[in-house]
Amino acid sequence: MVHRKSFGSYHKSNRTARMKEKKKFLVFGGYVECRDGDVHYVPPYRVAELYGLSPRMPNVRLAYFDVPETYLPYDDSWIRLYPRSDGNYKNMREDMDEDE
Predict the structure, then answer these.
(1) pLDDT tens digits for 50-73?
(2) Cα→Cα distances 5→9, 10, 11, 16, 61, Å
(3) 6 domain residue, yes or no
(4) Which pTM does this prediction carry?
């Protein structure tokens, strides 16, 4: 009897990778006011991390308001993420996992 190895998990991981690439994120930096009244600049890479995304992911683009080329070429299919003063960031990676 020949035992065949199941490749089900391999195929599932490929499918998951493809699903994750369907959602695209355009991440902006910006100024936020903290509870103590101080104002801080949060750069786009940090905003991506706060939302649970890696800035190096192929479906994440960092955008800068003073550099229009970083955001103008992208259409409305890109989900725009901004810094939040309240600090309540939804984990977008978990959101992508739920969509599979």
Answers:
(1) 999 999 999 999 999 999 998 899
(2) 11, 11, 13, 21, 39
(3) no
(4) 0.70
